[in-house]
Automatic annotation (TrEMBL):
Pfam families: AMP-binding, AMP-binding_C
Domain spans labelled AMP-binding enzyme C-terminal: 423-498
Span of domain AMP-dependent synthetase/ligase: 13-373
Protein known as: AMP-binding protein
Highest taxon of the lineage: Bacteria
Length: 517
C-alpha cells in the first residue's frame, strides 16, 4: 500500500489548530487559519500561471511566512520546489533555474532586480511573481486577493514523486539537484520529530534561510501546533533578544553562528531560560568551541548530521551525550543513527570496516534521495549497491558513536601519509585565543602536499603561530604539523555557512590541478 505524501502532512499541520499562532516575523503574526487560507490562494494563482504536477517552482526571498507557504502550495499542486539562496549571484540562480527547468520564479521585492535579470537570461523561467508590488512581475499577494480560499487537499501523486529538487552546497564542484520525493520528506518529518529534540510545544526560531536546512524543523513544529519565529538574517544580538522576548524553546544554528555569538556578544547576559534544545549542524563544530557554548547555554545543545541527499537525516548526538566532564570523547562525535536510518562505514570495496577504522559513511533510509536530477552516472555512483555514499569519512567507537574525520575529498596526502584536516582543526581550536581554523593541503615539490592552516584569532587576542604548530606536532605527530600557519581576519564561507575550502585552495592550486579538488 502506498504511503502518505508530504502534502498529507502539510494539510494536517495547517488545519488541526486553526486559532493558534503559526508564524511570527517582526510585528507580523499569522494564525494557522490565515496560513491555510493564503496557501490555498497561492496554489490557485500558481495553477493560473501554468503550474501543474511535475512543473518547477523556485523562490528567492529572505525568510517570510510566504516562503514556506509557496513551498507548501507547490507540494499540494504536485509540482517541484527549489529554493534559491539569498546570497547567490545572478549566474548561480540562472544556472539553477535552467538546470531545474523552473517555470515560475517567486521573488521578494528585495530581489526584484535579480529576479528580472534571471528571467531575462533563463531559457526556462516563464513567469516572475513577486511577494509585493515591484516592476519585476505581477504581485503574487495581490493576485491572491482576487481568488477565494478553498479547502486544502493533498495532491493525487505517488509517494515517489519528486517534491523538492534541492541543490547541494557546491563545496566540491557545481551544485547538483538532489531529487527528494514525498516519501523522503515524510520520513524526514518523522525522523526529526523523534531524533532532533523537538519540544512538545515548540516555539522554533529560524534565522538561517528556510529555503535550505532551516526549513527542516518547520513542518514538525507546525504538526505539533507550535509557532515558527522567523528572522531575515542572522544578527547575534537580535537572536538573543528574540530567545528572551518570544520565549523560544527550539532553535537551529550552524557553527559559525555560534562562534559569532560567543566572540562578539554576551549570551550569558540574556535570559535564555526558555531554550530547551539548541540544534547545531550543517558543518562540524570543534570540541573546544562546543565546550564554550555548553558553558554559556547549558545542557541544551544537540548535534545533527546529514546531507541534502538524505534530507539531513543521518545521526544525532543527544543533549545528554554532550558531557565535557564525564564523556569528553563524545564531543568529537556526530552521534548515533537517527530513527529510521541505517548507517555503515564501508571501505573502497564496499565492505564494512571494523570499529576504530576509518571508512566512508553510507546510509540507507526512506529519506534518501531518488538520485541527482539529470545526472544518471553521478546518481549511480552515489547510490551504488543500495547505499547512499556520503563522501564523509568516519570511525565508529565501541559504543556505536560515529566520529567524522573529514570529507574524503579534503584528505591531504603528504609524504605518503593520509591526513584528515578536521583532526588538526580540532587541536588548533582547542587553544583559547583561536576562534576558527581551516586546514588544507597546498602543492609542495617535496611532500606532494603541505599541511597549511588558516587561523582566525578571537577579538583582541594574540595567536602564537609557532606554538600552534608545536601543539599539533605534540598531539598528532610531525606529519600532521602544519608547514605553515597563516593568520587571517576571517574564513570564506559558502552560502549555507560552511567554511569554503574550495575558495581557500583556489589561490594556490592554479599551476596544477588537484585531482580531488
Amino acid at each position: 500500500m502506498a504511503g502518505p505524501t508530504y502534502g498529507n502532512v502539510i494539510v494536517e499541520a495547517l488545519t488541526r489548530y486553526p486559532q493558534r499562532e503559526a508564524f511570527v516575523l517582526g510585528d507580523r503574526r499569522m494564525t494557522y487559519a490565515q496560513a491555510a487560507d493564503l496557501t490555498s490562494r497561492i496554489q490557485q494563482v500558481l495553477v493560473q500561471h501554468g503550474v501543474r504536477p511535475g512543473a518547477g517552482v523556485a523562490v528567492l526571498s529572505p525568510n517570510a511566512p510566504e516562503v514556506f507557504l509557496v513551498q507548501a502550495a507547490t507540494f499540494l499542486t504536485g509540482a517541484r520546489y527549489s529554493g534559491l539562496h539569498p546570497m547567490g549571484s545572478v549566474d548561480d540562480h540562472t544556472f539553477l533555474c535552467d538546470d531545474a527547468e523552473i517555470e515560475v520564479l517567486v521573488v521578494h521585492p528585495k530581489f526584484a532586480e535579480t529576479g528580472a535579470a534571471v528571467a531575462a537570461r533563463s531559457a526556462s523561467v516563464r513567469h516572475v511573481l513577486t511577494l509585493g508590488s515591484t516592476e519585476a512581475g505581477p504581485d503574487l499577494l495581490a493576485l491572491c486577493d482576487k481568488v477565494s480560499a478553498q479547502g486544502l487537499r493533498a495532491p493525487a501523486v505517488g509517494e515517489e514523486t519528486v517534491a523538492w529538487l534541492q541543490y547541494t552546497g557546491g563545496t566540491t564542484g557545481r551544485p547538483k539537484g538532489a531529487m527528494l520525493s514525498h516519501r523522503a520528506l515524510v520520513q524526514e518529518a518523522q525522523t526529526l520529530t523523534i531524533s532532533w529534540g523537538l519540544p512538545e510545544n515548540p516555539r522554533y526560531l529560524a534565522s538561517s534561510p528556510i529555503t535550505h536546512a532551516a526549513v527542516l524543523p518547520l513542518v514538525p513544529t507546525l504538526a505539533r501546533g507550535g509557532t515558527v519565529v522567523l528572522h531575515q538574517g542572522f544578527d547575534p544580538e537580535e537572536w538573543l533578544r528574540t530567545i528572551a522576548t518570544e520565549r523560544i524553546n527550539y532553535a537551529f544554528v550552524v557553527p559559525t553562528m555560534l562562534y559569532t555569538m560567543l566572540d562578539k556578544s554576551d549570551p550569558a547576559a540574556t535570559d535564555c531560560s526558555s531554550l530547551e534544545t539548541l540544534v547545531y549542524g550543517a558543518a562540524p563544530m570543534s570540541p573546544g568551541r562546543l565546550s564554550e557554548a555548553q558553558e554559556v547555554f547549558g545542557p541544551v545543545l544537540m548535534q545533527v548530521y546529514g546531507q541534502t541527499e538524505c534530507v539531513g537525516m543521518t545521526t544525532s548526538l543527544r543533549k545528554d551525550e554532550h558531557d565535557p566532564v564525564r564523556r569528553p570523547d563524545l564531543l568529537t562525535s556526530c552521534g548515533r543513527p537517527a530513527a529510521g536510518v541505517t548507517v555503515e562505514l564501508l571501505d573502497d570495496d564496499g565492505s564494512p570496516v571494523p570499529d576504530g577504522t576509518v571508512g566512508e559513511i553510507c546510509v540507507r533510509s526512506r529519506a534518501v534521495m531518488n538520485g541527482y536530477w539529470k545526472r544518471p552516472e553521478e546518481s549511480a555512483e552515489a547510490l551504488r549497491e543500495n547505499w547512499l555514499h556520503t563522501g564523509d569519512m568516519a570511525k565508529r567507537d565501541d559504543g556505536g558513536f560515529f566520529h567524522i574525520v573529514d570529507r574524503k575529498k579534503d584528505m591531504i596526502v603528504t609524504g605518503g601519509f593520509n591526513v584528515f584536516p578536521k583532526e588538526i582543526e580540532d587541536v588548533l581550536t582547542s587553544v583559547p585565543t583561536v576562534s576558527a581554523a581551516a586546514v588544507i593541503g597546498l602543492p609542495d615539490d617535496k611532500w606532494g602536499e603541505q599541511v597549511t592552516a588558516f587561523v582566525v584569532a578571537k577579538p583582541g587576542a594574540t595567536v602564537d603561530t609557532a606554538a600552534l604548530t608545536q601543539l599539533v606536532r605534540d598531539r598528532k605527530g610531525p606529519h600532521q604539523a602544519p608547514k605553515k600557519v597563516e593568520l587571517v581576519p576571517e574564513l570564506p564561507t559558502t552560502a549555507v555557512g560552511k567554511i569554503d575550502k574550495k575558495a581557500l585552495r583556489a589561490a594556490h592550486w592554479t599551476a596544477q590541478d588537484r585531482l580531488v579538488h
